[in-house]
Amino acid sequence: MLKKMIKYDLIWINKYMVYYFILTFCFACICRITNGHAETTVGLIIDKICSSIEIACLVSCVINCIMRVWVRFKNNIYKDESYLTHTLPVNKNQIWNSKVISGIISLLLAAIVIFICILIVYLNNETIYSIKSAFENMTEIFGYGNTILMCIAVVFLVIFEISFLMFSGLFGIIIGFKSNNSKVIKSVLVGIMMYGFLSSALLIIMYIISKYNPTFMELYTSGMPSPSALKMLIYISLIIYGIYNIGYYFICKKILNKGVNVD
Questions:
Q1: Which of 8, 43, 62, 195 could share a disulfide with 168, CB 3.0–4.6 Å?
Q2: Within 10 Å of residue 94's Cβ, how many Cβ atoms?
Q3: Phi, psi (5° rounding) for residue 35?
Q4: For 33-54, what is each residue's pLDDT tens digit?
């Protein structure tokens, strides 16, 4: 049953996201073409316009994907659809897991589309050479194995940050819909407040760590921090966002298990 729930959640979330993906892909191809004709004034203007639209499409993919995850959760758990959801032969843990898993899969799908479109627009001999040079410089400093681990950590950091935003919204919905009135407004306010509070807490934690670590302090005192300081920044951010997401997952599940107020 869990697989079926995830399947239907994915279909609902992505049935309109497909149009955003196609539009983003099309403008990525257009940008690729216009990049080769930017020598003239008219060509440059067209290229800048298309590039701006492509950036808007990339951002829109992420925002709309997260929004649809939130809307699916709200409608499925608290609105008219909830009467069917709560009569299924599944427990609340399975319902919550289906929403989380389908949300993360949808975000990963959007991230893959965005990554492919960025490659279409910007990948050329010059960028390949720049990436290769940067990778070689990093391997000289950290070694090949550590460089690979850092690249993987950066990928997971992006995923964790986006998941953190998704969980903040889901937490806001869960808390907001426990109220008897102004549920949507309270959901938005709680989500924004939690996102802002935990983001601020992350910065405070990092500053406290820097007080006891001279290398990490370079992030606050040096205009060009050392590679070691940047490495620490990546790993510490990854750990903190991981803790946030795990905490969100279990706290939200616990609150849902106490019951929901269906409209």
A1: 195
A2: 15
A3: -60, -30
A4: 877 666 666 667 777 887 888 8
For residue 163, give the H/E element and its range.
helix 144-176
Nearest-angstrom CA–CA distance, 110 and 182: 31
Phi, psi dihedral angles at 28 (to 5 degrees): -65, -40
Residues in the chain: 263
Residue for token pair 């440059």 = 44
Q: Is the dihedral of CA 149, 153, 154, 156 positive or negative?
A: positive
Which residues, at least 6 apart from 162, have a Cβ–Cβ distance to it below 8 Å?
Answer: 62, 66, 107, 111
Q: Which residue has the higher pLDDT, 261 or 207?
A: 207
pLDDT digits (tens, 9 = 90+) for 101-126: 999 999 999 999 999 988 888 877 77
Give the burial string for 193-228 (b: 16+ CB within 10 Å, else e).
Answer: ebbeebbeebeeebeeebeeeeebbbbeeeeebeee
Query: What is the crossing angle of helices 144-176 and 41-77, to 10°?
Result: 50
Alpha carbon distances (Å) from 216 to 21, 98, 238: 39, 39, 15
0.90 exceeded by the pTM? no
- Using an 8 Å Cβ cutoff, are 168 and 248 in contact? yes
As given in the structure block, the two tokens for residue 3 are 């697989």
Distance of CA 55 to the CA centre of its chain: 16
Helical H segments across 36-91, by residue range: 41-77, 82-85
